[in-house]
Amino acid sequence: MKKISTIALLFSCFMINAQAYKGKGDAKFNIGANIQNGGTGIQVSTDFGIGENLSYGFVGSYLLGVDDFLGVKPEFKDRFDAKFRINANIGNVLKINEKLDVYPGLSLGLKNFGGHLGMRYFFSEGFGVFTEAGFPIAKYDQNITGFDHLNNQFTFSIGASFNM
């Protein structure tokens, strides 16, 4: 019983120090699964704090499993997307738990201009989980054919988040 109490106390100390967004100078790295219609893949992103509630970053995604389209396999350019993004980190504005950050944002990518809504929850000072939903606002080409729809639709991502 004494060992269990000691382990629980140590674990709770790590939980107390966890903070999802610290403001200017904060840096995060996320890696996770990208789930969408027609394919699944991997998403990698970074965010850098530039103010109390503002951060910028980059996100890249690559679709590993993609449905064939009329018997044709997609090329690398059809599977890959990269974006610059800016987030409003509003966890403290909403006065929620400091381990949780909610961040709506906008992104400018190779395929479209879009938006996203994400959340991060940190279990310890260095490790947490994230989830994100992304959507296109303006597509660069309104005549979308073939594999162009892969990077111009609603996406859902979930994975691990790390402090850098």
What does this structure look like?
This protein has 2 helices and 8 strands. It has 164 residues and is mainly beta. Strands 1-2-3-4-5-6-7-8 form an 8-stranded antiparallel beta barrel. Mean pLDDT is 86; it is low at 5-17.
Quick synopsis:
With 164 residues, the protein is mainly beta. Helix content is 12%, strand content 52%. It has an 8-stranded antiparallel β-barrel.
Strand content: over 45%
The amount of helix comes to 10-25%
Structural class: mainly beta
State the end-to-end CA separation.
36 Å
Poorly predicted runs are 5-17
Strand order of the largest sheet: 1-2-3-4-5-6-7-8
Backbone CA Rg? 18 Å
What order do the helices and strands follow? HEEEHEEEEE
* Average pLDDT metric: 86
Shape designation: elongated
List keywords for this structure.
164 residues, 8-stranded antiparallel beta barrel, 12% helix
Strand and helix layout:
Elements (H helix, E strand, L loop, with lengths): L1 H16 L9 E10 L2 E11 L4 E13 L9 H4 E9 L11 E10 L2 E11 L4 E13 L15 E9 L1
Antiparallel strand pairs: 1-2, 1-8, 2-3, 3-4, 4-5, 5-6, 6-7, 7-8
